[in-house]
Amino acid sequence: MTYGQICNHQDISKTFDFKIEIKRINRDTQMDSCVIKVAIFDKSLTKLIQEIQYSSEYFFNDAFSECGNVRSYTTNVNRDFEAVDNDYGDIIVADFNFDNKDDFAIKNNSGGNGGPEYRFYIHDTNDEFILDKFLSEKMIFFPIQINKTNHTLTTLVHANARQLTETKYRLNLNNQKWKIVKSKLISAK
What we know:
By secondary structure, the protein is mostly beta strands. The chain has one helix and 13 strands, in the order βββββββββαββββ. It has one helix at about 135-140, and strands at about 1-10, 15-25, 30-40, 50-60, 70, 90-95, 105-110, 115-125, 130, 145, 150-160, 165-170, 175-185. A five-stranded mixed β-sheet has the order 5-6-7-8-9. A four-stranded antiparallel β-sheet has the order 1-2-3-4, with no helix packed on it. A four-stranded antiparallel β-sheet has the order 10-11-12-13, with helices on one face.
């Protein structure tokens, strides 16, 4: 059985509107495989800027089930909502590469104990969104802190029953390369 949902987001970016379409292929389990299509428009919704499509095989039923499960660090929509189990929303608009342009992160799968895993798209100089492979494949979790001054992103993820792993990633603005600058275990409270 296949079913889907379409959500239009006109308030999470000052520059773009997002239309998210998800098609679920139900496997009669607590999770299902999905095809996610992101259409990015200019603010007037008259010009399609770009379409991005990807598949996921591990979404819980609540992923992309409510159009309001979004967050924006640009327009402050749901910015202060509590992120339960590292779930910052289905799509989040923020500036991840510190160039004062809207980038976005979108759920890639529902993850495990660490929470959902995200795909990170960076707004480039050609007015397109490019998948940031490092953030999407190495960092994968949404950062608890975005530090524009130090050009760092910090994640906090369950390591085991008693500890969390705090990892800090720094972007070298000269070569646009990320690196891990600090990773440590801390006690879970």
